[in-house]
Amino acid sequence: MIRKATLLAVLSAALLAPMVAATPSTAATSAIRQTVTVSIASISPDVPTSQSDEIKFTGTVRNDTGAPRPAMRVRLRYTPQRVTDRASMDAYARDQNTTTLPANVSSVSAMDIPPLAAGEETRWEFTATPVQLGYRSFGVYPIAIDVAQYGVPIFAQRTFLTYAPPAVPKPPRNKLAVALPVIDQPHRATDGSTFVDDKLSQSVAGRGRLADLARIAQVAPKTVTWFFEPGLLDDLDVMKSGYTVKTKDGEESKPASAAAGAWLTNMRTSLASSPVVAVPYADPDVAGMAHRGLDVLPNRAIQLAWQRAGELLGREVKTNVNWPPSGRLDPDALDLLSVADAKVDRVLLDPGNLPPQPPVTFTPDAASTLDSVNGPVTALVADPQLSALFEPEGATSVLLSTQRFIAETAMISAEQGQTSPRSLVVAPSRRWDPNPALVSALLKTAGRLPWLQMTTLESIKPSKASVPRAGLTYSDADRKDELSGKYLKRVKETWEQAQLTAEITTTKTQSSFDAAVLRLSSSAWRASPRTGRALTKQVSAAVDDRLGKVTITGAGSDRPRKSLAGSNGVVPISVKNSTGTQITLYVDVKSNNRKLLQVKEQKEQLTIGVGQSGTVQVPMNATGNGDATVTVQVRTVDGKAYGEPVRLTIRTTGYTGIASVIVGAALTVMLAAVVTRVLRRRSERKLARAAKNREVSTA
């Protein structure tokens, strides 16, 4: 029996061997799938509305196997079952397994492909109707185009077809607002014409990122809301007049950039009638500031944003809407924004920052309300799937993205239990690199779909359709993403020193370093802290140089001592103003040895004109002869120390006491001389009278 069983096993193996060899291995099938591809070029109409509509499908098949391929067949796969929800739609789109394709294979919507040589491509085309596909009602249906050999699919392209016949009642017409960011990273340290790199010149020309944004702006609907970072506009404005770029060997001069000027002009023209919002100047890390004691900077960033964006775009811009870095903020950051002079009353957030509570199985309305220290703030939450379609992770075709967008928005409109219109927001990542053809196609499609109404971001408000949300959810990971405490400490020190350069001026104008310090706090340095530290070093050096333009004269090594002529008197302290503007200050002098030298406190303000020096007379009193030191500190009128303190040596001579002794001795000598003369004259008169009496007696 054992010998018979063994023989049967050997015979079975021999018989089955050819069959196994004829079946492609898993690895071989995988290789074929990677190198024989089918793509869809068009689906027309993209939204059939009648059962008799003829839907035309076109595309190509390409052989990249490196070897000839025998004849193949391109087929339409479908199912009459609608997709039930957006999660199922996403799962279907991500699935790459040919065994899970729609089960039905059309016998008429297909085309035979002749043998293809290596690298050869051929077109295919066929049609279908909704009635052939079994579509009966409004909804989203999964379809696929596969390329098969011997009836076995070797590659497939999945997509969706939305069928929208007239329906009673009509699907709700949801509002859709699109927010597009024009945000970059700072390219200068200070406000001069020196750039740390030349990336902007590439970005505004040819197929650069900013050039693509300008192309989108030219064709975008007027309902799209544009978010500009004013520091970017500032940089481009400088470039159009000529600039220099730091290099390893020094600096390289660059001519005036015509592309930068043209870009600014195109944006001003294209968006003249579109809503425009300015994010805070330099796009600072507001959450990081709130947690590191830089509370005053967000307000200044908003003020400067309104000013510069308005000037450079030649129109009124709004700053009441904030789009935080990564779309996330916490209550501390929200409070800072809400108490700004130009109050922020709207925030555009990532869905993870404000999730529904409890979780919902449908698409929630975008609008909600948050409580801040300064009253309610409207929160607008972007839809993650719709936003991702405007900025796909990898290469994708315009057609597939458009079909997915149609399907997603139709599915939202058809979700069970939703009878009233909802609000939707699209917001790609803030420093995105857009595909102009894709974005323009999606915007055009959104404008013609009967279940969507394009609107501005400002028009979206909380309504009855709004859902309860959990409040601002800000995780430890979000905090870790902020600019570090060590980094922001250095920024804070630079900011405080920069403020002194303004506070010492007579008019107390805004610091000319405000924009520079805000560039240091840009959220761009979250991903590039080394660049941020390099810029901080440059700005700090520039601030120190400005502080050094107010100097105590005669305090150098050439005049190491001042003299006090006597045990008490006054010592002149002079301050020179080389700042280019009138300043007001007072000089604070402290004795370093009060037993030897006492200094009277000074409260007299000193106003010094441009390029001039001012002097204060400081009363001092010495208790002995020799050298004593004092520390001289220039202070603002508010009492803040300005610049580094200076130590002066005071030489006390005691001349006043010696003079008293000398004067006293002189008076004694003089009195003695007078008395002597009086006594002598009296003696002489007595002698004269005695002689005269003798003469009289003799006579």
TrEMBL record:
Source organism, top-level taxon: Bacteria
The region annotated as signal peptide is 1-27
Keywords, ordered alphabetically: Membrane, Signal, Transmembrane, Transmembrane helix
Q: Which InterPro entries match?
A: DUF6049 (IPR046112)
Report TM segments: 655-679
The protein here is known as: Glycoprotein
